[in-house]
Amino acid sequence: MVWFLRRFFKNKENSIEPVDGAIPQHVAIIMDGNGRWASHRGLPRTAGHHAGMVALRRTIRSADELGIKVLTVYAFSTENWSRPKREVDFLMRLPKEFLRTDLPELIEKNVKVVMVGSADGLPRHTREAVDEAMAATAQNTGMILNFALNYGSRAEIIHAMRDIAAKSASGLISPGDIDEQTVDNHLYTADLPDPDLLIRPSGEIRLSNFLLWQLAYAELWFTDVYWPDFDRRHLLEAIEAYQNRDRRFGGIKL
Ligand code: FPP
């Protein structure tokens, strides 16, 4: 109990905050469980996605307040196109709906919006909404909010390999000089640090083609909570678990 009290205190909003320990610089989240959240309530899957958008808003606010530098959220995968058209159409409208209401707050909070994934494959209205948010926040210097949209890690790696192969064929890169940094520089995430912490709600314990290269040394944290129910307490739980991990990056502690 004493340990618990020393480690935590109540902040002004009466929520539990970690007092000490490192905050992960880059947190990546697979926002999973929207469909099951909805079907447990007898609601259409789209209602789950809408509730997922509200959970995203909460999480962005908490992440920003906690000093997280980069928040990457898996909003739509290259595999999600196989869902019924009605659901895909709904998901493709969400970025516009979210940014219509939340962009002013993101601007005010100095958040910079970026995107990873293939923008070419998105409907025009989705791409325009994201482009507008990226342009409006391009000069911001606070937390980076990175939407993974039409994103698949294998597609990203293929894209990078093609770029590198083309540069190699034209003599710009010598094959023997290709190293980890070269690959990093050709991924969609070239400008971002690797995630320190991956969070996946909904009880699924897998990566689902998300940031496979970049998560090489991330700490992984899973919870049974469905994404629409995810809140500040769960984020803090994940961060506390992260703080208790011993990150050795393949080395040993001397
Ligand atoms: C996976 O849950 C979730 C998605 C494919 C969509 C995630 C999108 C949101 C949380 C809304 C994001 C909002 C913006 C602004 C982009 P699932 O549908 O696979 O759930 P299930 O596994 O329970 O069926």
Q: How much helicity do the residues have?
A: 40-55%
Oligomeric state:
single chain
- The strands making up the biggest β-sheet line up spatially as 5-6-4-3-7-8
Give the termini distance in whole angstroms: 32 Å
Show unreliable segments. Answer: 1-14
Give a quick set of tags describing it.
single chain, 16% strand, disordered N terminus, alpha/beta, 8 helices, binds farnesyl diphosphate, six-stranded parallel beta sheet, two-stranded antiparallel ribbon, 254 residues, 8 strands
Quick structural gist:
This protein has helices at 2-7, 34-40, 45-66, 85-108, 124-137, 153-169, 180-186, 232-243; strands at residues 8-10, 16-18, 26-30, 70-77, 112-116, 144-151, 197-200, 219-222.
Walk me through the structure:
The chain is α/β, with parallel strands linked by helices. The protein is built from eight helices and eight strands; from the N terminus they run αβββααβαβαβααββα. The chain has helices spanning 2-7, 34-40, 45-66, 85-108, 124-137, 153-169, 180-186, 232-243, and strands at residues 8-10, 16-18, 26-30, 70-77, 112-116, 144-151, 197-200, 219-222. Strands 5-6-4-3-7-8 form a six-stranded parallel sheet, with helices on both faces. Strands 1-2 form a two-stranded antiparallel sheet. A hairpin with a 5-residue loop joins strand 1 and strand 2 (16-18). The radius of gyration is 19 Å and the shape is globular. The structure holds farnesyl diphosphate (FPP). Farnesyl diphosphate binds next to helix 2, helix 3 and helix 4. Farnesyl diphosphate is lined by residues 31-36, 49, 52-53, 56, 75, 80, 91, 94-95, 98, 202, 227.
